[in-house]
Amino acid sequence: MKSPWEELLAETERxxxxxxxxxxxxxxxxxxxxDDYVEFLRTCNGAEGSIGENYIVxxxxxxxxxxxxxxxxxxxxxxxxxxxxxxxxxADGLDLRDQEVPIVQIPLVGMDxxxxxxxxxxxxxxxxxxxxxxxxxxxxxx
Length: 142
Prior knowledge:
With 142 residues, the protein is an alpha+beta fold. The protein has helices at 20-29, 35-43, 61-70, 73-76, 123-131, 137-140, and strands at residues 12-14, 47-51, 54-58, 80-85, 90-95, 103-107, 117-120.
């Protein structure tokens, strides 16, 4: 049975799934990760390409670790774990401040919580938001 996000990622170049060791390393560093996101990584350890009208780079397990450090995310937006970029100035990440761990969009330059907006209550809804160019915004807000 296909995962709900597989069709949404049909136009992307997907990597082979993360190994158990890669996932354990990531969850040691970031113990609060969404189960649906971890399942994505297990199946596909990163992807890049178009989803609808949007371009996305879904980071691999090693990219999540390395790029969160490189962008000093814990300094500029404590409680955020970035997991994607659009290849430009926008990034998306997991908001650990919220018990439901929604996915938020935030600028890389000028990263600040005041600039963050929820773009998905779960990983699939986030991908749907991208695929339908924001059509899911009304659902995200509720």
